[in-house]
Design goal:
Strand content: 5-15%
Oligomer: single chain
Structural class: mainly alpha
Number of strands: 3
CATH topology of the domain at 8-104: Serine Threonine Protein Phosphatase 5, Tetratricopeptide repeat
Shape: globular
Distance between the termini: 56 Å
Strand order of the largest sheet: 1-2-3
Length: 294
C-alpha cells in the first residue's frame, strides 16, 4: 500500500508540474522576456526530465540576462550552462558569450568594504537590478520547493510566481516575498508552510513581535534594504548579530547580510505580519511618509 501511495503522490506532483508549465508558457507567449517565467520553465522541464526543453529556456534566459546586463544573474547562469555545454554547441556558445561579457564588464564600484557598504550598500545603488533579480530567483526557488513538497498547489504556485514578478518591478522598497504573497492572499496554510520551511531549512522560527528590537542591531542594515529583501537585524550578542528573514533558503542573501553588517550572523525565520509590524514601528519618519503617499 505504501508503494501505491508513493506512486500516486509522484503522479500528482508531476501533474502539478505540467500544469505549472502550461501556465508559464502562456505567460512567455505574451511576455517573451519575462525572466521569472523563463526561470520557472527551465526548472520545471528539468524536474520532469525533459533536458532538451530545459536547455531551450535556459538559452532564452541567458539571452535576456545579457541584454539586460545583469552581472549577478549571468554568473549564476554560467554555472548552469556549463552542465549543458559539455555536449551542446549552443550552450557552449552562450557560456562563452557570458564569459566574454563578464571579463569586459568591470564597473568601478563592484566591490565594497564594510564601511563603504554602510554608506552605499550593494543592491541599493548601481547593481540594484542585479540583486533584485537574484532575490526574485531565490523567492521563486522557495516557491518551487513548497510545490515539490506538496505545500503549494500548482494554482497557488502560479499566482505566487506572477505576483513576485509584478512586485519586483516596483521602484519602491516593497518586500518581495513568497510568505508575503501567501499572507496577502489569505492562505490558510501559512503557519503550516512556515513550520515546514523552518524544518526543511533547519532555520528556527522567531516570534519577532515578542522582541524589543535593539536600535544598534536595527541600524546595521539600511531601512530600504531590509524592506526590499525581508530581513532585519534585531539583536546583538557580543560581536555577532541575530537576523530575522522571510526566506530561509537564500544562502546568497545571508552571505551578503554578513558582508554588510561585518558580523557573524545567526538567522531566524519569521512571519510576514510580525516583520511588517516591527518595520512599521521602527521605520524612520521619511520612510513612513513615503509609504503613506504610495
Amino acid at each position: 500500500m505504501a508503494s501505491t501511495d508513493d506512486k500516486k503522490q509522484r503522479e500528482d506532483l508531476e501533474n502539478e508540474v505540467w500544469a505549472a508549465i502550461s501556465a508559464f508558457e502562456q505567460i512567455v507567449q505574451t511576455i517573451p522576456n519575462d525572466r521569472v517565467s523563463l526561470e520557472a520553465l527551465f526548472h520545471a522541464y528539468e524536474q520532469v526530465g525533459d533536458l532538451s526543453r530545459a536547455r531551450e529556456y535556459l538559452l532564452r534566459l541567458a539571452g535576456v540576462v545579457l541584454d539586460e546586463k545583469d552581472r549577478e544573474a549571468a554568473e549564476l547562469l554560467r554555472e548552469r550552462l556549463a552542465k549543458f555545454a559539455v555536449t551542446d554547441a549552443a550552450a557552449k556558445e552562450a557560456e562563452a558569450r557570458i564569459e566574454r561579457w563578464l571579463a569586459s564588464d568591470k564597473p568601478e564600484a563592484r566591490t565594497h568594504d564594510v564601511s563603504d557598504a554602510q554608506a552605499a550598500p550593494p543592491g541599493l545603488q548601481g547593481d540594484d537590478a542585479e540583486r533584485r533579480s537574484a532575490h526574485v530567483t531565490a523567492e521563486l526557488s522557495f516557491a518551487w520547493t513548497l510545490l515539490q513538497a506538496g505545500e503549494l498547489t500548482q494554482e497557488e504556485y502560479a499566482f505566487v510566481a506572477q505576483d513576485l514578478s509584478e512586485i519586483s518591478a516596483s521602484p519602491t522598497p516593497i518586500t518581495v516575498s513568497v510568505l508575503h504573497v501567501l499572507h496577502d492572499r489569505g492562505n490558510r496554510s501559512l503557519d503550516r508552510i512556515v513550520s515546514f520551511a523552518s524544518r526543511d531549512s533547519t532555520v528556527p522560527i522567531v516570534p519577532l513581535s515578542l522582541f524589543d528590537v535593539q536600535a544598534a542591531a536595527f541600524s546595521l542594515l539600511p531601512f530600504d534594504f531590509m524592506a526590499r529583501y525581508g530581513v532585519m537585524a534585531f539583536e546583538l550578542m557580543g560581536k555577532e548579530a541575530l537576523v530575522a528573514l522571510l526566506n530561509p533558503y537564500d544562502q546568497g542573501l545571508q552571505a551578503k547580510i554578513e558582508t554588510l553588517t561585518g558580523k557573524k550572523c545567526h538567522f531566524f525565520l519569521t512571519l510576514p505580519e510580525d516583520f511588517d509590524a516591527t518595520m512599521a514601528k521602527l521605520a524612520p519618519p521619511d520612510s513612513a511618509k513615503k509609504k503613506g503617499a504610495e
